[in-house]
Amino acid sequence: MPELPEVETVKRGLAPTMEGAIIVRAELRRPDLRFPFPNGFSASLEGKRIAALSRRAKYLLIELEGGDVVVAHLGMSGSFRIEAGAASETPGSFHHERSKDEKHDHVIFHLLTENGPARVIYNDPRRFGFMDIIARDALSAHAFFKSLGEEPTGNVLDAAYLAKRFKGKAQPLKAALLDQRNIAGLGNIYVCEALWRSHLTPLKPAGAVVDAKGKPTKKLTALTEAIRAVIADAIAAGGSSLRDHIQTDGTLGYFQHSFSVYDREGEPCRTPDCKGTVTRIVQAGRSTFYCPSCQK
Fold this sequence. Notes:
The protein is of the alpha+beta class. The protein folds into two domains: 4-138, MutM-like, N-terminal (N-terminal domain of MutM-like DNA repair proteins, Alpha-Beta Barrel), CATH 3.20.190.10; 159-290, Helicase, Ruva Protein, domain 3 (Orthogonal Bundle). It has helices at 4-18, 41-45, 159-166, 173-178, 188-197, 218-244, and strands at 22-28, 50-56, 59-64, 68-73, 79-84, 87-89, 105-113, 116-123, 130-135, 279-283, 286-290. The strands form three sheets. Strands 1-7-8-5-6 form a five-stranded antiparallel beta sheet. It has a four-stranded antiparallel beta sheet with strand order 2-3-4-9. Strands 10-11 form a two-stranded antiparallel ribbon. β10 and β11 form a beta hairpin. The protein is elongated and about 55 Å long.
């Protein structure tokens, strides 16, 4: 499933085409994705100007003039493709290459931009993604968003915030970090990377990084800094791939080329002077990659 940095790079890639554009027509090629489209979805979009694109956790938000917001989730295999004239581009940087097979084109936004007509096409072979339309002033109370924690990209996510969330918790640190009520949008790949950077084992109880007074330990401060850094690095790499690394076949450069621990089972640990080997374990049905030698 695309993680927060991937959704952020998709947003940034779509914004130059979509922001300010008028939706001439929203073409649905099937009645549902993961869930049925809401009644009147297409009709409610026609003629609307797109005011802005934003993101909350792993949700892409297409904000319309008038107060409605199209909420899109990419699921396991969803992607957007921009077609303007003869050009075609798939914005985003993904761990797995995205489909361009037209039989999986399920939603087409026909747009009128300042540079002329364009189409933004949603392609999703496995159809685990979905779209909904929600009033902007009802967004924070909606079931998708009301329980989400702080974003890992903003200044609000600090060690003191996590100390309050982790105090007294016996659950493994990996599980606490994946809990969207603690940190919104943080997924498996970047949790593994952040734990490796901060030299913390994913098996440590979350409460162990909080002291007896409920204050963050140095380890929690290091973890918080690692979370923010790994997300920032991933977004920067995705942005660079959009600008500089689009290949002739349309594929993009991927941040996974810089992964230090994720999906590197059996390889030497990249921590300087560490002689350990990356190990894979399963926690709550998810693969965890870490170095038992330097992550304590």
